Queue: 4 jobs
Job 1
Amino acid sequence: MREIRLQVHLAEDGLALFALWEKFREDYALPDVPEGFGEGGTMRSLMSQRDSVKVVFDQVGTPTYALDLAKVIFKIIEENLLAKTGIYHFSNEGAISWYDFAEAIRDLSNIECDVQPCHTEEFPTKAERPRPRFSVLDKTKIKATFGIRIPYWRDSLKDCINRLDETNDQ
């Protein structure tokens, strides 16, 4: 079994994971990735059930849309680029606080919920060590090595929400 190593920045711990392209998983140890943005579906659900939510404003990162990551992994396999080993950072382009990301999810989902900013110290977490305050990844290497264009997080969030809405309408 050959292993592909991709370091992926995910917005939250404990996301529901799903396997990508089962036919490749046996031959290549593909990473599991979150459904949609992971936290996008979780945050939508939470906002639908509550009048208000608190989200940290003092942590900045870049969301990762699973479909965008899946396309990159598929390109690497399909174009037989597996010999280009190494650690590659991947997340969508741009940077945003998790508070602003929650606001975008709410607005794009047309949910009425008061999103309130809070400090990291106010937000309960099970993690033994705190998340870094700035966790934006440099994706120069993966873009140059594999000749990819990475979509901006907001464009991918719109796509994710549209797909979630289509799934919910069925």
Job 2
Amino acid sequence: KMSSDQPAAADVRFFDTAKVIDFRQHVLPEFVEQATGFSFREDFGRWTNADIARLIFCSPLPAMLEVHVAMMPWDPNMNQPILVVAGGEAKIFTPFAKEIRLYKIGFTCKFPGKMIEFFIPHALSPRHFSGGVSDDPRRLGVGIQSIAIKKSTKISSLTNSLALILQKGGRSISARGSQAVDEGR
């Protein structure tokens, strides 16, 4: 569990300018109240190491926002849908490249909230997955370099109307699909 020392003032205009979490840094920015499900810092950023990676902010998220995630999947999560939930709205993107790529996800929040959650389909230890090649006991999911959150003034063109039901941990999660924009192409 990571947390910052100084909370930011709760201000509805807080996300008017983009806020960036650089996971290559040792310390989280002060606008992040808490982060769980993330491993230790590495040169590229941080791996998720749980079924759910969660960020809780000091200020409420805007009603309409864009989340830009620079990340790469660990092998079992290549081409697997990642569910992201913010403000009661769920979106899905599918990471497809072994190197860091930028994925954009647009949200129209159903209710005010301060949390973004990433549901990882296959959080697995390299120790068990690699057939003994690695002794890493962490349950890796995706490697995240940075996450930028910014207020949006329009509904994202990334949203489509397909309904998708994901089975995660014995409960059904309904989500409208979202396609990630690969900025690396």
Job 3
Amino acid sequence: MSTIRRYAFFISSTFRDLAEQRNAVIESVTRYGHFPIGMEFFHAAFDNTENYIGAKILESDWIILILGGYEGSRTPEGLTFVEFEIEFAKQHNIPILAFVLNEEEFRQSNPTDAMQRLWKTIHDLNQPIDYFSEKDIGRLKQKVDQAISSNVEKMRKRDLGGYVRAALFDDLKSRRTLDSNMSQNAIMSEIVDRLSDFNVEIERGNLDAFEKSAMAEFFWSMSAARIFRDKKASSVFFEAGSTIDFTARAFLKLLTEDEYFIKNEGSLKVFCNGAVSKFRFDLRHIQPEFLSEVRYFPQPPFSDRFGKALGAIRAVGKISATEHTQGNRLSDEQVYRDQLLKHANETLPKDCLMCLSVTGLCKGLGLAPYVDSYRNFVFKEVLLSTDRARVLFIDGSKWGQSVREDEIYEFGPLSEFVSGQSSKPLAFLVSTALEPRHGEMLATLEDTCGLHSTETSKGRYKLMYFYNDQFKERYGIFG
């Protein structure tokens, strides 16, 4: 059955000076039967403006950029909103159809530094750009029509993206969406059914995806050669969770794209605590000579809904996270702690590098969502009691405040925790888009906690890498 796909176009431009041009683009989009998304259609949002715009861009198949000479209003971080929209689209691989004021008229508009920067960014995209004149709206409409028609045709031929009637996909999450041959295969059907149990972790992977990916890539760009090429670690452990899934993904990409790891023989072991990361390694398309083994730690079974592999402590009871932080513990908890610690010491090599998320770090710092007991808390405490090197990943924008509806991400001062970990190799990977928070993180982890640091920027994010003396001694100086 033929499927008619309709596409969503996010219209990015300033409003005051380009109202006519925006109307022309909206008319072109709707005339072809597609959906325009723009500020004209926004309602008063509960979320902050940037989050709302970001969500709308993620709903879109393309960005249509109309770039004039006026910069418009700015975000709290100092970017113009058009800059923010384009950077966000680039970070999430949303294709951009660029219509730019011709150079003569652009120069005559006395563009600010921000506009000149954006002009350069657009011209560095390495893709076609159409130019328009403010005096010829008809010509702009013609160019937009051509761009929409040609790009939509390419997508439709490949059956990609867009929106279709919901009736065609009422069974989207069922095995009936498999290829007809595969849907008759009991094994494939069972795999699809079981993977649906991890929909929460997969859904959380869509939140702050660029930020999580940027942290992961920064960490491995700074660390991979020193730690693994120099054979200062023979194994790496990835905890379950969406942030660490991105860390594992970036590491797998490194192993399968870097000639050194592809061709040089090694004995690297990878341990995964969650199904998503393990599955990605199992489906790798290249076998690097450097990689010898990928396995779970602890061994399954998994808890449903989130994907934790809790192994030796799966029998710990259902005390809530709140009760646990108030001191309520099961009498046999120590038995499971001892079992897990013994398992960790027998399984994870002494030089293993552990990649952990900050959730469940210590009392008052919350647990990962949908873990309905304190098993995650116990699991994290046991891992941190070992002598293995550990790297903790933190979204610094959430530091010291509740910023989500579930109110679980309330991160407080870590000086006490860092002090307690002072005898073990410890590092933090921190990101934030908030300049005041950037200063707070530096003051807390560098000045108060005495950690070394190096940092970089990617898009709108500051990425910071903090590490203690023991981490430096084991792996060398970073930066």
Job 4
Amino acid sequence: MGEEKKDKKPRKRPYLKPMLVAYTALLGTVLEKSGGLAGGTTTTSDVSLKKDVQNLGQGTRVLASLGALRGVYYFWNEKYLKLNPQADKRRQLGLIAQDLEKHYPELVSRKDGFLAVDYSRFSVVLLEAIKQLIEENKMTRARVSALEAMILANPPQPRGRPVDGLDLAENVAQKRKAKATRIRGNLSSVSR
């Protein structure tokens, strides 16, 4: 029992090397596709790999198309739960693929006979909508500034202010005096 353990040389396992290489390659592919360990998603988007590039907002009103879409809460029905027994049974939120397909068919695909939405690319539509809102906001601010300048240059006459150089109360008092004088005059001519 007093024997010291001898340092053992690691046993060579040649069968592990190909498995390790395959695992490393697989992990590298997964990391490349997912964007790293954080779980993000990356997609090749280099302009040098694209042709016929057009702005999404060009020729279409992104805000109007978004207004036609419904953001909904829902629960998966029995049909879906039979197809996907591991599905989350809690309340979900999302879009209706049929509605989205009318405006952005590029974001809808068929999967097992059902429509599926590519939510990651939908963010591009939202970006363009935000840009349109920013532009509309700039135009609205410019219109408000122009209207403010017009008002300051030509202020409207507030009610109760001078009319023919008189205060409104003075004007009303003078009219009452004139009316009373006429009435007295008419009464005095009748009584004679």
